[in-house]
Design goal:
The chain is mainly alpha-helical. The chain is built from four helices and two strands. A two-stranded parallel sheet has the order 1-2.
Length: 124
């Protein structure tokens, strides 16, 4: 019986990592944002609607916690949407404001859904 319960817990934990946790982004993508093109993308700026967690290493203080919060609450229409995330501290808001010239917003691409956070850059 213990073996079965352990197996069941492992299955539940595994599927919770596999299933997408974000909504389908195509329905909420603002039409006024530029389209996402990963081939011709400007890598000098972090696209807050499509960046993976690794890209937040470029801005001191944003990796991993603040980067994850930003990813989990995407998509955004403007930087003000990012600053209005509930639970952000003033220090976190200052980091976002101070790095505003390093960010861009493009239409969300739902193909990157889960991989934005869990892209095998860390070990469990």
């Amino acid at each position: 019986m213990k073996g079965f319960l352990c197996f069941l817990m492992i299955c539940v934990m595994t599927f919770s990592f596999i299933l997408p946790t974000q909504p389908v982004l195509a329905d909420v993508a603002p039409a006024e944002l530029p389209k996402t093109n990963f081939i011709e993308q400007d890598r000098s700026k972090i696209d807050l609607n499509n960046a993976n967690i690794k890209e937040f290493r470029e801005v001191r203080g944003m990796y991993p916690t603040l980067g994850r919060i930003i990813i989990e609450h995407a998509p955004y229409r403007s930087l003000d949407d990012v600053l209005s995330i509930k639970g952000l501290t003033e220090k976190q808001k200052d980091l976002i404001r101070n790095g505003a010239d390093r960010f861009t917003l493009r239409q969300p691409d739902e193909s990157m859904n889960r991989e934005r956070i869990n892209n095998a850059l860390y070990r469990l």
